[in-house]
Write a structure and sequence with these properties.
Elements: E1 3-7, H1 14-25, E2 28-31, H2 32-45, H3 53-62, E3 65-69, E4 75-79, H4 91-101, H5 104-120, E5 123-127, H6 130-134, E6 140-145, H7 148-157, H8 164-173, E7 186-189, H9 195-208
Parallel strand pairs: 1-5, 1-6, 2-5, 6-7
Antiparallel strand pairs: 3-4
Helix pairs in contact: 1-9, 2-4, 2-5, 3-5, 4-8
Bound molecules: cytidine-5'-diphosphate (CDP) (2 copies).
One cytidine-5'-diphosphate is lined by residues 8, 10-16, 154, 158, 190, 193-195, 198.
């Protein structure tokens, strides 16, 4: 099993960097945040109160879930036969995903999908706890960061309505798998780097450990 773990706060560049890195290395890209968003979207679709952990836990136990890879090597998750896409970035999902992701039953559902996908192909997986909890034994761990101001500007430039500071606070302070720098992770401040600059830096570090484009 080969897993490159990329963690960090919102808008630090995880998805953009992970996608490009995966393409360069011919690895698959696994976006764990999209899985937490998909569960949140399904909870909202079922009109379950997102602030009621017991109801969410019961709904999670009833969910039929499967995941896999698209032809382009991107992970997908299907919940109760639905595969949300653009809905995942809505304000409603942004506002509710952190409380939903704090629930142990939700984390356990996502972790099972992530570990199953990693058995199938070499992956670049990004999120909050990929290096610290989901794949603690991988030797390839990165933590991307950027100043709050830069991250706010990036989201605004994307035209997305997001409450990144609120999410970061909730994600860092929860008891279960909080956002933190995994032991052994390379920390990269991306505030003043271009996307390609970050990918080059990660690729250079990996190549020293023998992970290179085929
Ligand atoms: O792209 P962005 O960094 O804004 O968020 P995301 O990666 O799509 O993750 C959305 C939310 O899912 C985060 O704010 C966390 O609450 C949760 N998440 C998590 O708890 N653990 C992960 N490994 C990935 C995401
Ligand atoms: O996945 P995460 O929320 O950490 O960040 P993202 O969605 O990959 O990136 C947020 C935005 O910042 C995207 O529009 C990127 O193009 C931009 N950006 C970046 O991620 N890193 C840089 N060094 C420069 C810009």
């Amino acid at each position: 099993m080969t897993v490159i773990a990329i963690d960090g706060p919102a808008a630090s560049g995880k998805s953009s960097v992970a996608t490009r890195l995966a393409r360069r290395l011919s690895f698959a890209h696994v976006n764990s945040g999209a899985m937490y968003r998909a569960v949140t979207w399904e909870i909202l679709r079922q009109q379950i109160d997102p602030s009621h952990p017991e109801s969410i836990e019961a709904a999670v136990h009833r969910m039929s879930v499967d995941s896999g890879f698209t032809e382009a090597g991107e992970s997908f998750i299907r919940i109760n036969s639905e595969m949300p896409d653009l809905e995942l970035q809505t304000l409603e999902v942004n506002q509710n995903v952190s409380p939903v992701a704090a629930i142990p039953a939700v984390r356990s559902l996502v972790n099972t999908q992530l570990r199953t996908l990693a058995e199938k192909r070499p992956i670049v997986s990004e999120g909050r706890d990929i290096g610290s909890v989901v794949f603690p034994d991988t030797p390839y761990k990165f933590y991307l960061d950027a100043s709050p101001e830069v991250r706010r500007q990036r989201r605004a430039a994307q035209g997305l309505h997001d409450s990144i500071e609120k999410r970061d606070k909730l994600d860092s302070s929860r008891a279960n798998a909080p956002l933190k720098i995994a032991s052994g992770a390379y920390v990269i401040d991306t505030s003043h780097l271009t996307l390609e600059g970050v990918v080059d830096k990660v690729a250079e570090i990996l190549s020293k450990s023998g992970i290179r484009p085929a």
